[in-house]
Amino acid sequence: MSGAVPPALRPGDRVALLVPGSLEYVDVVLRLLTAGVFPIPLDPRLTPVERDRILAGLDPTLLVEDGITLTELAASLPRPGLPRGRPMHCTSGTTGTPKGVWSGLLDDDAARALLAEERDLWGFRADDVNLVLSPLYHSAPLRFATGTILAGGRIVVPGPFDPAVVTEAIERERPTTMFCVPTHLQRLFAHWDEHGTPDLSSFRLVAHAGAPCPAEVKHRLIDLFPSGSTWEFYGSTEGQFTACRSEEWLEHPGTVGRARPGRLLTVDDDATLWCVVPDHARFTYYGDPDKTAAAWRETADGPAFTVGDHGRIDDDGYVHLDGRREDLIISGGVNVYPAEVEQVLGACPGVRDIAVYGVPDPAWGQRVCAAVVGDVTEDALASYAREHLAPPKRPKTYGFRDDLPRTLTGKVRRSELG
Question: What is the largest CA-CA distance in the chain?
């Protein structure tokens, strides 16, 4: 259903949000969760093809695609209170088939535990001002924004990331917290080198995640912001794993921290990371019991899940990542799954074979590239990508080959493409 708010949304219903982030957006997310209704935050830039494919298995009760519907929806819902679950964010997975991460309705005790664990870790409080740098359809910025609001604080949403606009917001609003990805920091530091660094003394918490942070960026972050204010954490759409003060990182270079409270992290013989979580942090992939079963296993300490990341845990309990999910590209803090891009561009007329891969990029961390076999031009591929893929997923570079390097079992050797 799209365009009109139904007479009543029932607990367990799902509402797809396809509008830009704003103060009202966060208010509606909290109102929905208070009513036991699950928002599905999505990139409003998704093409119709992408949107339909993602939502096909999620059966939303309502699609919100404009500000008028958002306002009407807010008026029909209770004021923000205790969230009865988590927003249903979508993750593509390495198969390229988007799935909703579903917490289900939580009882009061579990709902209070979910709220408390974020509040206790990050210390959200009534005098906080959270500066939102990332799109609110991503899980981390939405968690920080909702946590701040629920603690009685306020949020500032400057709009699409622009270093000059963010700098003005820092000077005007005096934020106390912000979540960012390393690309944000790189662009801010470059802007400040040219125009001067603002007064950063108001910050008590600057958390970054989403992509590996270059050491030089990390050191500058520590130097510029107040002592003890900077953190890194490691997590995924499915769940949160670690948190790490920058001072700990200095003592354990390269770590992403130790297990968050209530978590237990282990590695198996293949160096795959597994995480035991509290009951309120468990999840399923909506409508996909097979994918859910593959993500979980029973352990002596309780059910544990994995997202396929590889790493090691040192003698002091600090996690070091050796590799993110297989083939995952992280560009500007956005996860891009080659299988999804290949699935879409493989349907472009003239393409016989295609492999998508990432290469290092000084500004974005990684750049999305494609190796193509077929009778097709770069212009035709770029046009097809604009029609069918959101901007972060569109290859920035196309290379044309007679064939793709493959193993004896047919798997593309992506390491030979860059």
Answer: 61
Percent of the chain with pLDDT over 70: 95
Query: Residue 147 in contact with residue 316, Cβ under 8 Å?
Result: no
User: pTM higher than 0.90 for the full model?
Assistant: no
Contacts of 321 (CB under 8 A, 6+ apart): 212, 234, 256, 309, 310, 311
Please give the average per-residue pLDDT across 160-167, as a whole number.
96
**Is the CATH number of domain 14-323 3.40.50.12780?**
yes
What was the pLDDT predicted at 322?
Answer: 74
Distance CA 40, CA 91 (A): 11
The Cβ-side half-sphere exposure at 212, using a 13 Å CA radius, reads: 18
What order of strands is seen across the sheet that includes strand 264-267? 264-267, 273-276, 302-305, 296-299
Angle between helices 182-195 and 163-173 (to 10 degrees): 80
For every residue of 323-372, DSSP letters joined together read E-STT-EEETTEEE-HHHHHHHHTTSTTEEEEEEEEEEETTTEEEEEEEE
Token representation of residue 146: 């909702």
User: Where in the chain are all domains bearing CATH 3.30.300.30?
Assistant: 329-416
CA 407 vs CA 94, 167, 323, 359, 412: distances in Å: 18, 49, 20, 21, 6
Lowest mean pLDDT among 85-99, 150-164, 253-267: 85-99
Burial degree of 415 (CB within 10 A; 0-12, 13-18, 19+): exposed
CB 171 within 8 A of CB 199: yes
The conformational region for residue 132 under phi > 0 = left, psi -120 to 50 = alpha, else beta, is beta
Tokens matching residue 355: 């492999």
Q: Lowest-confidence range among 65-79, 143-157, 321-335, 383-397?
A: 321-335
Q: Is the pLDDT of residue 141 over 90?
A: yes
Query: Which strands make up the sheet holding 284-285, listed edge to edge?
Result: 90-91, 99-102, 284-285
Indicate the fold that domain 329-416 takes in CATH: GMP Synthetase; Chain A, domain 3 (3.30.300)
In the chain, residues under CATH classification 3.40.50.12780 are 14-323
Compute CA distances 319 → 241, 243, 309, 323, 359, whole Å.
10, 10, 11, 12, 25
Contact 412, 355 (CB under 8 A): yes
